[in-house]
Amino acid sequence: DTAVSQTPKYLVTQMGNDKSIKCEQNLGHDTMYWYKQDSKKFLKIMFSYNNKELIINETVPNRFSPKSPDKAHLNLHINSLELGDSAVYFCASSQDHAGVVSEETQYFGPGTRLLVL
Amino acid sequence: GQNIDQPTEMTATEGAIVQINCTYQTSGFNGLFWYQQHAGEAPTFLSYNVLDGLEEKGRFSSFLSRSKGYSYLLLKELQMKDSASYLCAFMDSNYQLIWGAGTKLIIKP
Predict the structure, then answer these.
(1) What percentage of chain B carries pLDDT values higher than 70?
(2) Res A1 pLDDT > 70
(3) Residue A40: closest C-alpha in chain B
(4) Considering only CA atoms, which of B19, B11, B107 is closest in space to residue B70?
(5) Which residues in chain B (15-54) have CB-CB distances under 8 A to chain A?
(6) Residue A97 pLDDT > 70, yes or no?
């Protein structure tokens, strides 16, 4: 049973295309996240959703839009893909955004390797 | 401002002990995390410290000094499977995780 799953695992596409990455968690967590890990291996938070409300929106281009149909899913839509969008995108979830800190452990999905040509 | 720093790469020998250091600066602090990430895989949780001192968990231990903005991860009895990147991250006052770039640990026989 996969706790946090993402699809697709690999995504190769042309510049200018629109693509989506899906994420699902079966842990019953209230908060989900999207991270971008670039070639230098920095993990950068992009978005965070708590009970279907956006609570962190870093300075990412508005070509990126998160969509959460329910608290178990947080999908990432990317419009007009650019070369610099090539990276590994990780979805993660945690029990709560604040509260008992031991529950703040974030569980990561396997990552989606995006390559824009 | 906020920043976090850890060495880029370290090498150690199978069976030995290695300490990976992490220093950070932040005005708000809600704990320090260590994650392990094998090449091509997702980060996985190793440890969490919010109070000063040493937390031991099997072969891995993590230490925190809040006054010094310093943490380390101690790995004992190194095994080849410990070859991975080790990511340090602190949780700021907004409960957002701020990540280091990771330390790539290479284990040699």
Answers:
(1) 100
(2) no
(3) B101
(4) B19
(5) 30-31, 33, 41-45, 48, 50
(6) no
The answer, yes or no, to whether residue A99 has pLDDT greater than 60, is no
CB-based contact A76:A20 (threshold 8 Å)? yes
Q: Report the gap between the CA of A37 and the closest CA in chain B (Å).
A: 10
Cα–Cα distances in angstroms (integers) from residue B107 to residues A115, B61, B80, B83, B96, in the given order: 30, 18, 6, 6, 32
- The pLDDT value given to residue A110: 93
Measured between beta carbons, the chain B residues lying within 8 angstroms of A97 are: 95
**CB spacing of B95 vs A98 below 8 angstroms:** yes
Q: How far is CA A13 from CA A10, A86, B108, in A?
A: 10, 10, 38
Residue A104 pLDDT class (50, 70, 90 cuts): low
Within 10 angstroms of residue B29's Cβ, the number of other Cβ atoms is 17
Of residues A94, A72, A76, A109, the one with CA closest to residue B97: A94
